[in-house]
Amino acid sequence: QVQLVESGGGLVQPGGSLRLSCAASGFTFSSSAMNWARQAPGKGLEWLSTIYSDGSTNYAASVKGRITISRDNAGTVYLEMKSLKPEDTAVYYCRVDLGRTYWGQGTQVTVSS
Fold first, then answer.
1. Smallest Cα–Cα separation from 24: which of 81, 78, 83?
2. Strands (E), the chain
3. Torsion sign across C-alpha atoms 33, 46, 67, 113
4. Sign of the torsion formed by the C-alpha atoms of 111, 48, 43 and 23
5. Rg of the chain over CA atoms, in angstroms?
């Protein structure tokens, strides 16, 4: 079965950096586009970035320049975030669309001094 397991979240000070990971299994990772999204407290889901099987990427305008999505050949997709702000506090999710949409359980990122 499809599994997406995020990790790497935590508490970070404003201006800091984090790298999130999403370990994927149960489908053909190499040919699948992978996505990151987040949900801040009291807000809806916000798409952040997509990386396609050919390595091309898209970013939301709200975070472009501060985040980088990447993937390896072993089934993991990453989200590197820098210059973090308190408004980046959210649960970050990995997503894949395979006819139906699959989500991971999320990883909490808290940006606070």
1. 78
2. 3-7, 10-12, 18-25, 34-39, 45-51, 57-59, 67-71, 76-81, 90-97, 101-103, 107-111
3. negative
4. negative
5. 13
Tokens read off for 21: 């990971």
**5-61: pLDDT as tens digits:** 999 999 999 999 999 999 999 999 999 999 999 999 999 999 999 999 999 999 999
CA distance 30 to 47: 21
**Burial zone of 4 (CB within 10 Å; 0-12 exposed, 13-18 middle, 19+ buried):** buried
**In angstroms, rounded to a whole number, what is the distance separating the alpha carbons of residues 19 and 29?**
20
Q: 76: which 2 tokens?
A: 């993991």
